[in-house]
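Fold this complex.
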Amino acid sequence: MPTSDLLPLVLLLAAVAYGLAFIRSRAVAMPLGGIRNLKALPVYYAARAALWCAIPALIVLGAWATFEGKVIQDMVMASLPAELAPQSAGQASLTLSQISNLAAGKLDPAMVPEGISGAATLLQELREQSSRFKALLVILIAVLGGTFAWTRIAPHINARKSVERTLQRLFFVSAAVAILTTIGIVFSVIFETVRFFGKVPVTEFLFGTNWSPQTALRADQVGSEGAFGIIPLFTGTLMISAIALLIAVPVGLLSAVYLSEYASGPVRSVVKPLLEMLAGVPTVVYGFFAALTVAPFIRDLALMLGLEASSQSALAAGLVMGIMIIPFVSSLSDDVINAVPRSLRDGSLALGATQSETMKNVIFPAALPGIMGGILLAASRAIGETMIVVMAAGLAANLTANPLDSVTTVTVQIVTLLTGDQEFDSAKTLAAFALGMVLFMVTLLLNVIALKIVRKYREQYD
Amino acid sequence: MTDPGSQAELVRRSLKRRYGKERRFRLYGIAAVSVALFSLAVLFTDIVSKGYTGFIKTTVTLDVHLDGELMYLNDASDPEQMAMADFQAPIIKALQEYFPNATSRADKRELSRMTGSYASNQVRDLLKENPDWLGSTRTIEFPAHDTVSVYVKHAGDPGYSIRLTEQQQRWTDELLSKGVIDTGFNDVFFTSGDSREPSNAGILGALVGSLLTMAITLVIAFPVGVAAAVYLEEFAPGNRLTDFIEVNINNLAAVPSIIFGLLGLAVFIGLFGMPRSVPVVGGLVLALMTLPTIIISSRAAIKSVPPSIREAAQGIGASKMQVVLHHVLPLAMPGMLTGSIIGMAQALGETAPLLLIGMVAFIVEIPDGFFSSATVLPVQIFIWAGSAEQGFVELASAGIMVLLAFLITMNAFAIWLRKRLERRW
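Structure:
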């Protein structure tokens, strides 16, 4: 029985347990003279039965479904005869896909060696067995849990307390998912990164100026080494982010000032949602716009001015990314400007300063830390942005300061290295995780600093 | 002591300059807003002008004589014969009715490139379904070849290059005037999956993939997010662990989305052995990604429920959990729903993490379950935008319009919900 059928079944069992326990708790209360003689309302006895029925069963089901694929895979691979046992990770994934295709009937058994088709039969068998055991175990646990709760329906037991305790624990587990996610991120990048540094020295990675991750297919090919110097990726990322911030910071900041200080009510109520629309447009749309409209336009413009421009210029990607983060900067600055106490503004205006003088000499200095925090957050977003650069920036890692040249970024390389066929062991794949690690660290650092600045600033005026 | 008269004079003389500065500052503001709005306008105009032709299809309608001799076929129910037969020949023959002089080998090749590359498959499938059609004459509507379609829709547009030979252009013009080649609403776009041929490619597969993925995301992210928000606002003791959870949530909200793709690749696919390119894994990754958004907005919604409600409920003997479940949650629900819809809209437009977990594969079939290979709307747009054939660019734009229509509907619904249900105290 597949997981997708078991899940509704368990929920159904829980519903049955709920109903039965409800009826029984009323039956227990009857001879005592009504439900007011119970320690808790019948719904709580019912809810407790449902929880007892569902939670252990769901935990077992989740754990089984999570690990069954991996365990079966390993068992099948271990069953292969010695001469077919894969030598490398690449071979292993090839053999595995052969076996699973065979088991799914997509491959002719005559096309593969004896051992492989034997493994496919084993795979099929193990899957069926696992499925049967899983269904049996889960249903058994659900029924046992429900029965246990059923036997514990008595007037002196306070079911409400145990239900509330369980719920509160569930709430806590939900909140802890955030921690688990962070741990998951850290571990998923750390392991592969450590393995990567086993192949490529840290210093070469951090200070190398040459990035060409294409490792050769055969050992005797020329230039089979592959170079993993991150500097050109860094400069590319920084250049595109800098262009984006050069656009977004002045435009976003001035828009926020105009909308909060000068614009009339109706104008504000139209323009603000329009600006927010820019934030809601998916990044792939910006990427499309950058690659197919802005980049050709910039190339033609540069040609007209007699300049040489690549068809995938850093400028195009940066410009469009700048447009994307305008609403981000403007809404953050808006918050910060509004947080400056009214009294400062009124004091300045009362002394005869014009609105712009108040803005420049009183509000900006007061809001500066907050604005800096906002800019840092915007920078972290620009660095981590992927789709625009994947579609509009290039793949070649040029170490250049010319915004009309094509550059590549950290995120582009992660996507390029990890899409398409990959082996979990090659330096190429591992390099992507190392890049991910760098990206995570840099954005985390920026975020932590920015949040700290913003929080400190808020406290100042609260 | 300075003379008050001259002081006032000083101020008055500087006024002109100061007012000038004031005006200029105001103009900078207007300029900034205009730049932003102009970009928005250019973006939308560009998408629409590039993409509206994606909703138009070019068809070639021919009376095809299904001549068995021509196809080397005398029994259409025999699979062996069907595998060997030539289904292109009757189509060329039907076109030759209009151009009797086109008989040379080169002409025939050009004729065969008037209809789409899958036209012969279309004839084969029709015959497979109706073996008795063999020998009869049928009117069949074929999608036009990509190059013909580009010529019909975009002749004279500098953004497109016409790849038809002069002879083919002449033919196309003639067939157009005779009504054999025609344009109409592109129903194929809404009823089929991806294809190598732009005229056969549709968005339905990606749409279904998106819906399946979003279903998983919603089922996981909404309950977990709401539960986490309730815990943090109502139950969490003020200790280090709570602080740590809060720091984590705030940081996760700002982690680049591609990092979640790495997480999905390493944990769900690498560690748990889940299959690639399936909606389940995509939904899980997007759920983890949207969780912080939902938690943050749900907390704001819970915070906005006034304490008097909690105190009143507790005053008449409700337990803490009863206060939360019976009073706080129902009152905060509109705000939570609004935040969740906005989070889901973000997830629907997200591309980068899904590229890493393999949802970027070329998939023709419409996905039929949470464990079948699928792609999603934004990834489909990405695939089309990078395809070589010119016809895919307008499909990508049309796909963007479909995606934006979904996003605008979701956001409008969220705003409506907020206006309709939110209470102010």
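Chain A touches chain B through 95 residues (CB under 8 Å).
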